[in-house]
Amino acid sequence: MARQSPYLITNYGKDLRLFGSSWKRAGLLLLAALFVVLPLQLDDFWLSLLATVGVYAIGAVGLNLLTGYAGQVSLGHAFFFGVGAYCAAWFGGGNAVGTRDEILFLDLPMIVWLPLAGLIGAALGALVGPVALRLSGQYLAIVSIGLLFVGDWILLGWVSATNGSQGLRIAAEPSIGPVNFSDLNIFGSAFSPEQGEFWFVWTLVALVALLAKNIVRSRPGRALQAIRDRDVAAEIIGVNPARAKIGVFALSSGIAAVAGGIYGMIVVRTITPEIFTGFGGLVTSITFIAIIIVGGISTISGAIVGSLVVVTLRQVTSRFVDLLPFLKQTPNDDGLMLVGQFNLIVFGLLIIIFLLAEPLGLIALWRRVTTYFKAWPFSY
Amino acid sequence: MTRFIEFALAGLAQGFVYALVALGFVIIYKATEVINFAQGGLLTLGVYLVYNFTSGQSVPFPLAVVMSMIVTAGVALLFERLVLRRMLGNPVFAQVMVTIGLLFILQNLVIAIWGAEPLNLGDPWGISTISIGEVIIEVRDLWTAALAIGVLVVFFLFFRFSKLGLAMRATAVDQEAALAQGMSSRQVYMAAWGIAGATAAIAGVGVAAGATGVSPSVEFVALLAFPAIILGGIDSPLGAVIGGLIIGVTQSLTAGYQNELFPWLWAGFDDVMPFIVMVLVLLVRPYGLFGTPEIKRV
Predict the structure, then answer these.
(1) Residue A132 placed within a domain
(2) Is the pLDDT of residue B160 over 90?
């Protein structure tokens, strides 16, 4: 009997499998091995960089559900990212920068405050959802910029809770029960905070990616894609656009808030409004958009790959600024431009170049390579 | 009452600035159906060029504005030719993202060249004021209003009577039909971007005459002009001006009366107000006050 090609898919069940081919399973094993081994090999700079990559990857997976799968362009993602970060301070514990001490901080354990931050983000996202129902495309993009202005007004105005422009310091720690990832101690061997945080963040990345993947390959995810591709047709075959759109807005905002909470707790530890709202917020939102465009829009792995490229690029230029003579760290140094500006110009160029040359991102490049080898010696 | 009139007039002046900014958005949208997020970057570039010509090369101010209009229009044209032309037929999302990319490049190049510190445009309008009864009007506000009305009139004449204007209107309505009648969409797109670039330089000068001065936050005003274009209807020049005026007056009145009427609101509500007005109008009229409803065919 002829042996069947492993690539021939004969039923829907096979098509929907998470890790269909043996290559994918091998790749997954390799990733798992890297997950365990990397923290033992890399130094702290690269580990904290990878933790930052992971945080952005989580947020980008959320944005990809909204923008990539449901086709709703939002520039307000940074707002929900910020909601999570401020929730981390309020519920997970923290203190105000400066002399204010009337702000109430709860010291809830992470297992409580992180989901709570996600829920609050999701609830706020669901509030925006109905507006998204009436509007779409470019209109929605502009209305979502409004979120950044509203956020700016709230964060700067509600001083008794946000400490205004001085911001909050987050004291919360990534601990689950007795296990504190910032101070990890397994069988008597102690690990550095960076090592523990790497494991913590990337475990979450895996969980969120799995959640997102399962959503997009099941009924609600197919409904989203149907709405994106042809909304009237989707409605006719029985997709409820209100439920789908509000749902995906809530989900994506909730994921962004979770990412924001971890961002506040692990990456920056001091949060100020300018990271999340106003023009700085627009920069953060566009960083997320650059990530999904570079990685590959409408793919879960694309969000992670994109984050790896975009965030690494940003952090590495900031770290090795001395090696690039045309960049400067402070306005008074010699050099053509500040590192931050250079990074934003590079983001702009990346967005333009990828949309021109490979609109489906790095993942599409990768697929093209694998298809070539799968089909070899035939051209297709 | 005098206070109310003063607030309203200040709002109108700011509104004309928004109108100038919004006109640039409208012309590109009319031709290409893409909201050009880079307009704020062109605005910043334009005003810094004016600064550069007047203070560096000591060119007289009106000439400097014209030179800046030409250069900014050139940059816009170049972007259309090199990037956006290749994106035709791509989803709108991709085209909008490309303009956002340009926004980042322009904005940060400007900061890299001229620095982030606010600069002085040398006060071309003067700070003199005219008083009518008890109401005091600043001359620079009159200039901005005159510029906005002037640009609007030129737009009207251009769209109404010139061949290219007609071609642009035709392309906006139906690109294929316009092509079949021998109107080159390429020319139309380039013209739209060029005009938008030139308008951006004028608008930038209008913005810089206000509170921001010559600083990177000129771009911020472009973000606040978004509600104006949406409010007025994204494809209507008249709508852009009226939307701009409504937003300007609402903002100014909010800033003026917030402390008395709504003392419990946090400061700075006037930056949020345009977006609230916009969302309210959009919920009632999804295509703005003067916009053309988009007809969905199944």
Answers:
(1) yes
(2) no
The model's confidence at residue A81, banded by pLDDT at 50, 70 and 90, is: very high
Tell me which amino acid residue A196 is.
G
Q: What is the DSSP letter of B78?
A: H
Residue A143 has pLDDT above 60, yes or no: yes
Say whether A71 and B298 touch across the interface (CB within 8 A). Answer: no
What is the extent of the structural domain holding B69?
Answer: 17-216
Buried b (16+ CB within 10 A) or exposed e, B217-239: ebbbbbbbbbbbbbbbbbbbbbb
Total domains in chain A come to 1
- Return the half-sphere exposure (C-beta side, CA atoms, 13 A cut-off) of residue A291: 31
Within-domain flag for B95: yes
Q: Which residues of B touch A145 (CB under 8 A)?
A: 223, 226, 275
Place of tokens 């608008």: B203
Answer yes or no: is B252 within a domain: no
Give chain B's domain count.
Answer: 1
Q: Is residue B201 part of a domain?
A: yes
CB contact under 8 A, B223 and A145: yes
Per the structure, the complete domain to which residue A323 belongs is given by 44-171+187-272+279-375
- Which of B217, B267, B286 is nearest residue A135 as measured by Cβ atoms? B286
Residues of A with CB below 8 A from B105's CB? 345, 348-349, 352
Q: Which residues of A touch B107 (CB under 8 A)?
A: 344
Q: Give the closest-approach CA distance of A267 to chain B in angstroms.
A: 24
